[in-house]
């Protein structure tokens, strides 16, 4: 259920009966809300883009945004011995660059935000904003999500878009649902068919592109007062025939390469989305795969999928589940020197005699 305004503000002077909007859906929408007092919840570079955009509007258009308080997670111990505290990136940007007041919160239980609040905006935050906090805000909350909702609901939509080899993605501006993540009313969404994902796009580059687009769409939504009831759901993707999947938190298992299951395209997608993949060698040891290449050939000798070595070869080869042959250009043998895995593989795996009849160029 979408968040609803509490009863006491129905006759508020912020909600006049007349309106400058011509459409029926927005006939009762406020034409000029008072300047917004925003509680912004964020963490990383994706959320920083939206915070910078809001701060710029605050200075350029004070009639739209009056204040911004930033909520972030506390510093976490990291490094050897867990003795070093690492702050989330947004804290330094908020305090040193934007001169905004910040609040470190690891749980909303027992925490009281600065009041009054008009709007909560959560972008790549990681904590669920409970109904108690949303209920303090005149207009509830908004979220910037880097996918075409309801596709790729969850904490890792960018990585899963690449892992699933999606051709298109986008941005959805949604309300914060009081019961579950990513089930709010979609107030703005990238126009059909979406934003094209170029070949060989990494997660970092895709995040940078979507962060900029998301920040612009968030500002546009505020300027158009789309957060003011009656709310209009403009999500189009749910009505299309596009795939809909969940985007759960990334784990070590997502980096696993199984040559009996994965294609070369799958292995590339793991590297674009997550960086280095890893596999298990026949002897049980683990190999970290840094870089591969597609030879453009297929194996007609019907070898088992996996890693193998040809006599005289400088790099180990592998066969994927479809019979395509790839080359491992750089790897690390677990427990050995970083980047020197190929040398050990060439000495560990028995080399096979070259057989031109067993390798053919893919037609």
TrEMBL record:
<dbReference type="InterPro" id="IPR002376">
    <property type="entry name" value="Formyl_transf_N"/>
</dbReference>
<keyword id="KW-0808">Transferase</keyword>
<dbReference type="GO" id="GO:0004479">
    <property type="term" value="F:methionyl-tRNA formyltransferase activity"/>
</dbReference>
<protein>
    <recommendedName>
        <fullName>methionyl-tRNA formyltransferase</fullName>
        <ecNumber>2.1.2.9</ecNumber>
    </recommendedName>
</protein>
<dbReference type="InterPro" id="IPR036477">
    <property type="entry name" value="Formyl_transf_N_sf"/>
</dbReference>
<dbReference type="InterPro" id="IPR041711">
    <property type="entry name" value="Met-tRNA-FMT_N"/>
</dbReference>
<feature type="domain" description="Formyl transferase N-terminal">
    <location>
        <begin position="37"/>
        <end position="222"/>
    </location>
</feature>
<dbReference type="GO" id="GO:0005739">
    <property type="term" value="C:mitochondrion"/>
</dbReference>
<dbReference type="Pfam" id="PF00551">
    <property type="entry name" value="Formyl_trans_N"/>
</dbReference>
